[in-house]
C-alpha cells in the first residue's frame, strides 16, 4: 500500500513532486531564474499514468524524502509563481 504524500524528483533536473494521492500532485520547478509551484489534478488517463510512473519510481523519477522536498520548497518559497491545473 502506498503512503501519501509521497515525494519524487526528476534525475538531473530541478523538478520536485509532492504526490498527494493517485490523482493529484504539486510540482516545484526551476527554469533558469524562474521558480514555479503548480498544483495538478489528473483528469485524463495519460495524466493518471504519469502519476503511477512517479509512484513506481520509473526513470527519470527518483524517490526523495519529505525533508528534502520541504527544504527545496523553503529555499525557493520567496521566488515561487503559483498556479493550478
What does this structure look like?
With 85 residues, this protein is of the alpha+beta class. It has a 6-stranded mixed beta sheet, with helices on both faces. The protein is built from 2 helices and 6 strands; from the N terminus they run ββββαβαβ. It has helices spanning 45-55, 66-76; strands at residues 6-10, 15-21, 24-31, 34-41, 61-63, 80-84. It is globular.
Question: What's the SSE blueprint?
Answer:
Blueprint: E1 6-10, E2 15-21, E3 24-31, E4 34-41, H1 45-55, E5 61-63, H2 66-76, E6 80-84
Compute the CA-based radius of gyration: 12 Å
Low-pLDDT parts are none
Broad structural category: alpha+beta
- Seen as an oligomer or otherwise, the chain set is single chain
**Overall pLDDT, averaged?**
93
| Span of the ends, CA to CA | 27 Å
Q: Strand fraction band?
A: 35-45%
What is the helical fraction, as a range of percent? 25-40%
Instruction: Write out the strand line-up for the largest beta sheet, numbering strands in chain order.
Output: 5-1-2-3-4-6
* Annotation field: number of helices: 2
Question: Main β-sheet, in a few words?
Answer: 6 strands, mixed
Using DSSP, what is the number of strands? Answer: 6
Total domain count: 1
Overall shape: it is globular
Series of secondary-structure elements, N-terminal to C-terminal: EEEEHEHE
Could you list some keywords that capture this structure?
alpha+beta, 6-stranded mixed β-sheet
Give a quick precis of the structure:
With 85 residues, the chain is an alpha+beta fold. The protein has helices at residues 45-55, 66-76; strands at residues 6-10, 15-21, 24-31, 34-41, 61-63, 80-84.
Amino acid at each position: 500500500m502506498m503512503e501519501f504524500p509521497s515525494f519524487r524528483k526528476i534525475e538531473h533536473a530541478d523538478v520536485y513532486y509532492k504526490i498527494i494521492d493517485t490523482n493529484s500532485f504539486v510540482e516545484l520547478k526551476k527554469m533558469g531564474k524562474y521558480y514555479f509551484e503548480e498544483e495538478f489534478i489528473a483528469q485524463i488517463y495519460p495524466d493518471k499514468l504519469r502519476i503511477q510512473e512517479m509512484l513506481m519510481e520509473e526513470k527519470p523519477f527518483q524517490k526523495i524524502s519529505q525533508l528534502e522536498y520541504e527544504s527545496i520548497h523553503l529555499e525557493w518559497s520567496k521566488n515561487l509563481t503559483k498556479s493550478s491545473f
